[in-house]
Amino acid sequence: MIRTALVLASLAALPAAAQERTDFTIKGYAEREYPVLIETPAPSIANGWAIVLLGNAARDDADWFQHSSWMVNRKDARDAVTLADDLVSRGYTVVRISGIANDDPERAKSPTRSTPYPYEDYLDQVRAALTEFRTRDIVADDHIILVGRALGGAAAVHLLGSDPQVAGAALISPARTCRLILDQSELSFAKLTIATQMDADEDGKRTHREYDAWQILNEENPIKGITFDEIDIDNDDFVSPWEIAAKLLAKPRADFDFAGDDSKDTFDQTWGEDILLKTTKPVLAIWGGTDEAAINLPLLKDRFEGVDRANIELAVFPRHAATLGIAAGPNVIGPINSSAVQRIGTWLDENFADAPAAKPDAAKTDAAD
């Protein structure tokens, strides 16, 4: 069931360049209504493309609201609104899909709570929202790009593989993209044991000097022979647990028979790395350097070795959290960084608005400043 309502710009908080906002709802999990917001740019700057923002499934509303208690500046953050502001100013129509129902009883108790529900239901809700949006003829059906973070990033990848009219995707710390091969509890224990041993002064940073000293004191170790420059994947001058895990997985994944593996991911969907290996559509994937999901960057890079993946750009932002806000301490972050917003907007312009047929010359993997 779809319910729609037109809200004039004067009556709603819109990005500065937006002309109007249209809201509708889709019926999803538990027969509740989930809101969808469409923000359109002024006709003079509209570029004919739509961006669909997908948050962390049942944990994110349409604003990607983050409570002030988590923020370094002690102010509420709405990262999807920040992204939409930039994207609408570039001429994109922006669609924001909430993973939280209007009448969620948990949300009514606290702005930091929401009712969990299966990923498959979230994916169905996104499909329903895309179907309804396409009936409105705002842009061509195949002029839709997905921008998703965390579980929304996973959804973007799965839709990239199943919806031929999705033109591309920008992924912010996408969840559960690659096979970890090893038992996850054993992998977690191994990486944390090494990380603890390596951190001689117990400040949580594991410097070049500490790494070299650990290698000397532990001649027989599972990452023997790997230099500091090789393990410092995000070039932040420290060794993170995910970087240790990536090196622990290098040989098991190199020996793994990907072609003969027909397993599904934990959502019972095709593995994200398999979809990304096959797609020819433009994809940008960015992880925060303090996020353990950043392990997917080196795993994807190794998987793509020897394969032409010029359409895929991989990046990591050192000292940033999964949300691409500055990581200021344990469970304390900043709002999405302006450099991340700029990176996503520029990538979209280069691949779609400015040069729709253009493709990058070579596969890119880098560490952002």
What's the layout of helices and strands?
Blueprint: E1 2-8, E2 18-27, E3 33-41, E4 50-54, E5 65-66, E6 77-78, H1 79-89, E7 93-97, H2 105-109, H3 119-134, E8 144-149, H4 151-162, E9 166-172, H5 184-198, H6 208-217, H7 228-231, H8 241-254, H9 272-278, E10 283-288, H10 296-304, E11 312-317, E12 325-329, E13 332-336, H11 338-353, E14 364-367
Parallel strand pairs: 4-7, 4-8, 8-9, 9-10, 10-11, 11-14
Antiparallel strand pairs: 1-2, 2-3, 3-7, 5-6, 12-13
Helix pairs in contact: 5-8, 8-10
Quick synopsis:
The chain has 369 residues and is α/β, with parallel strands linked by helices. It has helices spanning 79-89, 105-109, 119-134, 151-162, 184-198, 208-217, 228-231, 241-254, 272-278, 296-304, 338-353; strands at 2-8, 18-27, 33-41, 50-54, 65-66, 77-78, 93-97, 144-149, 166-172, 283-288, 312-317, 325-329, 332-336, 364-367.
